[in-house]
């Protein structure tokens, strides 16, 4: 569970430079905060630099006091370092409380729905419209001599609804996804669904909730300090700014007292905002929009495939009609032996004797080229189409990488064979393609044996889309992989569709794969198509008994598939 969340978090960070920068700056600030007592001690040497009258008043910046001293003779640098830690503490206190409360409320409201959602949403809504700062002032004035933790709790009272609102709408959208329905069908417990299906997908939103609450709290505290209602016994950035203004520090040459805390607050603001925007960027809601068009990319009519055996012909695919729409992920489901792989190899013209296509057509519409019947094109025409218009991710494809070639050379071979003009950009293109499937650029210099099964599968997926083909046919893309890696592969496939607009035909016996990934599912039984439809619809209300059996035979979510 923890590993799964960590992998999800790392994947998220890798996808946005802004997010990574924000987190690095925040990390440095946290380090400064953690070591602030030591730094303050080092600044003071033998004396406590935060003590009143430790030094002379209003010393201008000098090597002994890099930022000078204040009106009480305290070292401003030591004050700023200590105040930085206070700001981060208040941010962390309010951030954690608001996020935890917000997440719990959002899950209960979004997941339970109905009247529970009604009551919680109304309550959240009321808190959202109340003007926060005046209430905070009133609370602080009433509470008097509050501690830093108490201020954090007070601020959280007003900031958790923001987190709850953002997360609730995501819970609502996620819980209508087929894979959550699937988890319900397979009778997984609510908590199991929340932890295995919803939480990992909501991490970015939880991060946004945390960063916004922390930011609000830091500035809330500055506001309280400026009006003299801050917690006792601590020096905060707001307090330093306030005394710089009230004592006319700027005219006394003590400008660092004003400029440095403002600069640090700005930096903190920028870093938290970068985290915020970065998270939204990575989890751009536009990805949720369906890229499926009405255009047909492949039209299969009356396909029939037979295998000659010594007991006569075996019909593996019979009278199959199916249209694949541009931009969709179409799942082909069915138990072993139902004819799924035969369908794929027939379309790709990789069917070997004793197999042969005995009837039908497969009209393929590659962009910018005239339509072709895949079952009739010449070998040369097919060579041109492969990779550039039609890619294949074969079953057990991990062994299809050449073991003695570096990954970059395998990309190079495919790309240059079809698009020699891309030679100058290969150095930039290969790492970008690897990045699309969540792999580091250094993978390009590795050999297949240095990669895990899941990494090899992702390399192949990246090669498949390198030339931005119209259609990728993936046969059992997750079989033989660990459950966690399966999830990564499925996410990468969904990302490739979102980023490249590629159409995917995903063949899998595992209905769980279809539930998580595809838009439409076509169910095969004994060589025939028995049901085709929107995946949600098929899961909710399967028309064919066989489909119902397939759905019910799925192992429970969270339990390792055997
Ligand atoms: N080389 C072959 N010779 C004879 N019959 C074959 C051959 N290959 C496949 N078949 C038969 O064709 C039918 C469909 O097989 P196919 O491999 O396409 O099914 P599948 O749904 O892809 O199964 P799996 O998921 O196990 O690959 C089966 O009845 C199978 O026995």
From TrEMBL:
Q: Which UniProt keywords apply?
A: ATP-binding, Membrane, Nucleotide-binding, Transmembrane, Transmembrane helix, Transport
Compartment(s): Cell membrane; Membrane
What Gene Ontology biological process does one annotation of this record name?
Answer: peptide transport
Q: Which residues cross the membrane?
A: 20-40, 86-111, 118-142, 202-224
Supply one GO molecular-function term.
ATP binding
Q: What is its main location?
A: membrane
Q: Name one GO cellular component term.
A: plasma membrane
Q: What is this protein called?
A: ABC-type dipeptide/oligopeptide/nickel transport system ATPase component
Name the species this protein comes from. Kribbella caucasensis
């Amino acid at each position: 569970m923890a590993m799964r969340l960590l992998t999800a978090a790392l994947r998220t960070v890798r996808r946005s430079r802004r997010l990574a920068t924000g987190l690095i700056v925040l990390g440095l600030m946290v380090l400064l905060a953690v070591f602030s007592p030591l730094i303050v001690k080092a600044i003071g040497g033998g004396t406590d630099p935060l003590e009143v009258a430790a030094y002379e008043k209003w010393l201008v910046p000098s090597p002994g006091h890099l930022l000078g001293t204040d009106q009480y003779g305290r070292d401003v640098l030591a004050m700023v370092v200590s105040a930085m830690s206070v700001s981060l503490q208040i941010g962390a206190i309010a951030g954690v409380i608001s996020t935890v409360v917000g997440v719990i409320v959002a899950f209960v409201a979004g997941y339970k729905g109905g009247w529970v959602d009604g009551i919680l949403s109304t309550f959240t809504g009321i808190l959202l419209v109340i003007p926060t700062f005046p209430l905070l002032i009133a609370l602080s004035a009433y509470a008097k001599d509050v501690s830093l933790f108490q201020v954090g709790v007070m601020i959280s009272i007003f900031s958790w609804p923001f987190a709850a609102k953002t997360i609730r709408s995501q819970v609502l959208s996620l819980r209508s996804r087929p894979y959550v329905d699937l988890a319900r069908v397979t009778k997984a417990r609510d908590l199991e669904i929340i932890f295995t299906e919803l939480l990992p997908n909501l991490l970015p939103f939880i991060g946004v909730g945390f960063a916004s609450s922390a930011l609000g709290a830091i500035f809330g505290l500055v506001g309280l300090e400026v009006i003299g209602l801050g917690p006792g016994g601590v020096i905060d950035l707001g307090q330093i700014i306030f005394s710089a203004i009230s004592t006319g520090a700027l005219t006394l040459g003590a400008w660092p007292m004003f400029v440095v805390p403002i600069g640090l607050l700005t930096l903190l603001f920028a870093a938290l905002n970068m985290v915020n925007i970065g998270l939204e960027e990575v989890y751009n809601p536009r990805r949720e929009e369906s890229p499926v068009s009405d255009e047909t990319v492949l039209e299969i009519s009356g396909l029939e495939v037979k295998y000659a055996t010594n007991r006569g012909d075996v019909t593996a695919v019979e009278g199959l009609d199916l249209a694949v729409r541009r931009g969709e992920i179409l799942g082909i489901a069915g138990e072993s032996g139902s004819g799924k792989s035969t369908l794929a190899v027939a379309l790709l013209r990789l069917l070997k004797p004793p197999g042969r296509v005995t009837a039908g057509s497969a009209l393929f519409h590659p962009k910018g080229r005239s339509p072709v019947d895949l079952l009739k094109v010449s070998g040369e025409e097919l060579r041109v189409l492969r990779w550039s218009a039609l890619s294949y991710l074969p079953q057990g494809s991990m062994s299809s990488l050449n073991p003695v070639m570096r990954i970059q050379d395998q990309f190079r071979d495919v790309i240059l064979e079809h698009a020699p003009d891309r030679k100058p950009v290969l150095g930039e293109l290969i790492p970008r393609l690897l990045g699309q499937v969540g792999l580091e650029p250094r993978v390009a210099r590795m050999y297949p044996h240095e990669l895990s099964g899941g990494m090899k599968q992702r390399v192949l997926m990246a090669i498949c889309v390198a030339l931005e083909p119209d259609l990728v046919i993936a046969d059992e893309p997750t079989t033989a992989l660990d459950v966690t890696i399966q999830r990564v592969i499925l996410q990468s496939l969904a990302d490739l569709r979102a980023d490249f607009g590629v159409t995917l035909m995903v063949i899998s016996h595992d209905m769980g794969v279809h539930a998580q990934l595809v838009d439409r599912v076509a169910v095969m039984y004994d060589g025939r198509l028995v049901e085709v439809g929107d995946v949600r619809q098929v899961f909710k209300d399967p028309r064919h008994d066989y489909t119902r059996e397939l759905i019910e035979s799925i192992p429970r979510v969270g339990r390792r598939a055997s």
